[in-house]
Amino acid sequence: MSNEPLAYRMRPQTIDEIAGQKHVIGKDTAMYKMIQNGHVPSMLLYGDPGVGKTSLAFAIAGTTKLPFVALNATKAGKKDVEDVVADARITGKVILFLDEIHRFNKLQQDTLLPHVENGSIILIGATTENPFHDVNPAIRSRCGEIKQLTRLTSEDIDVLLQRALLDPVKGLGKMKIAITDEQRKKMADAANGDARKALTLLESTVFASSEEDGITIVEDALVNSLVDRVGVFGDKKGSHYYNLLSALQKSVRGSDTDAALYYLAHLLENGDLVAVSRRLLVMSYEDIGLANPSVGPQVLAAIQSAERLGLPEARIPLANAVVLMCLSEKSNSAYAALDAAMASIHQGKTGAIPSHLKDTHYAGAKDLGHEGYIYPHNHKVGTFGGWVNQTYLPDNLIGTKYYEPIEAGEEKRLAAIYKRLEKFKTEK
Asked: 7 lies in a domain?
């Protein structure tokens, strides 16, 4: 048997062997039909680790029988690209698979671009990062297809595991292996959408199992032990990590406690307590806001407790904070109002500060006309405190409204005060 890892050996040879990704390479897609007809457009493949970007590139090459060169942008240099270009002049079109394409610098890209443009090189770039954020626009513009690959389902991965167990040439088919459907499906679930992890887990399990009478017997205890060691899906600071942060916030905003806790669990397993804490604090003001002003200080207290405790105990106060925010009344009115004011400024909607609001803490202020300010604290209005009807906005912006109160939670009371004060302004 080859010394190459099982995940490498089981890489599909043609596009018909691709598991999942029906939206990209299913038999009804334009991509499938183009490749079957021998036409391969330059493309970018975007997706999380282990979803099959490299496998798809190899399968495309295997289907079309075109010359194929694989490079990794973290290691390849300008000379490597020039060598591929030189080969293309001799052999004709070459498929260049460039993994982690977002790592290519401008000089390397400039070397590559004209040859992609004239068609001598067919570029298949793969990236775990959002190509619209991390891939040079010049590369994107020359790729006719940008395809996002999705994480494989447990069913897709189970198909791959069964294929590996049965294949006598590339897989483990020459071995007699006693493994149950339940054990295999547990591995498929544990891989969390990552085919490479699943096949590596299967290979580790088989070779860690004991043999009796020529039969490798897989034990439940071994499977459970190895499954527990499978790493959490997603890399710190990668696109998937930021997608987790986004999903956490959107789940809290949507008041889905279970989903929010699920994403929090993923993030904490990645171990970056600082980024998670920062996002939770932002959420307490962005999404809960004036509807429940006490939540911000409570979340801050939870974050400070988590930082003092460290992981794994930090998960306890953070879980409290997430559940509290999920079930709290919500309002984004304050920061939405500020954003509206900032947008107005950028649009040039500004004016002169009224003279009575300008600084008067210096001799000569009156000579400049900086007078007329009425001190609100000297004019009591019931239990509200002090208020006086005077102009605060620039003259050309009088009547402009940025703040739109939301009648939720504590903000309902604040909204009533706001509306009452607005009414006072119209009274003579």
From this structure: no
Q: Let me know whether 63 and 143 are in one domain.
A: yes
In whole angstroms, give the CA distance from residue 117 to residue 147.
19
Q: Residue 305 corresponds to which tokens in the numbers above?
A: 């407790």
Listed residues 172, 193, 228: the one ending a domain? 228
The alpha carbon of residue 35 and the mean position of all alpha carbons in its chain are separated, in whole angstroms, by 30
Integer Cα distance of 89 and 300 in angstroms: 62
Q: Read off the pLDDT band of 225 (50, 70, 90).
A: confident
Is pLDDT above 60 for 120?
yes
Main-chain dihedrals φ then ψ at residue 87, nearest 5 degrees:
-65, -40
Contact present, 209 and 219 (Cβ < 8 Å): yes
Span 245-270, mean pLDDT?
90
CB neighbour list of residue 133: distance below 8 Å, 6 or more residues apart: 239
Give the confidence band of 90 by pLDDT, cuts at 50, 70, 90: confident
**In a domain? residue 333:** no
In three-state secondary structure terms, 148 is: strand
Residue 249 lies in a domain: yes
Q: Which uninterrupted H or E stretch holds 25?
A: helix 22-25
- Residues 152 and 19: beta-carbon distance below 8 Å: yes
The alpha carbon of 108 is separated from its chain's Cα centroid by a whole number of angstroms, namely: 27
Note whether 35 and 139 are same-domain residues. Answer: yes
Task: State how far the Cα of 302 lies from the Cα of 381, in Å rounded to an integer.
Answer: 38
Q: Which of 220, 219, 209, 214 lies closest to 175 in space, CA to CA?
A: 214
Domain count along the chain: 4
| 180/358 Cα distance (integer angstroms) | 80
CATH of the domain at 284: 1.20.272.10
* Residues 90 and 31 placed together within one structural domain of the fold: yes
Residues near 180 by beta carbon (within 8 Å), at least 6 away in sequence = 218
**Has residue 335 been placed in a domain?**
no
pLDDT digits (tens, 9 = 90+) for 297-346: 999 999 999 988 888 899 999 999 999 999 999 999 999 999 999 999 99
Residue 294 sits in which domain range? 239-327
> 197, 228, 259 — which closes off a domain?
228
**Statement to judge: residues 204 and 251 lie in one domain:** no
55: CB partners within 8 A, 6+ apart: 11, 12, 18, 195
| Cα separation, 250 vs 301, whole angstroms | 22
Helical H segments across 294-366, by residue range: 295-309, 315-327, 333-346
pLDDT of residue 325: 95
User: Are 166 and 125 part of one and the same domain?
Assistant: no
